[in-house]
Here is the input.
Amino acid sequence: APGDFDFMLRGARRVSRETFLSSLEAIAAGAGAKAANEVNIPTLIAFGVHDQIREFSKMVELNEAICNSHLFVVEKSAHTPHYDNPGKFTWLIRTWLEQGDAFDTVD
Here is the structure.
């Protein structure tokens, strides 16, 4: 979506050129998926229900590849759930941090 691209560009202006370029190279090379099984810390994956950039099936794969991860679908949001639905996203982060491994039981 056009808004998602604009948001990404604004974010790119906040990081160094090298960081931004290395992130793009990693995305293009598929490095994220390859490295996912090396993540060994609790991880929250927030997926916007209307995301047209990433497929939900890829987020399911990522969730399965990362040990101790939780996948949560954020309603009324696209690729940037923290921007599109900040109230729900804030609730999500707080609840996940407070409940830890019990997070799967949250409605």
Summary: The first helix runs from residue 2 to 12. The chain has a mean pLDDT of 78.
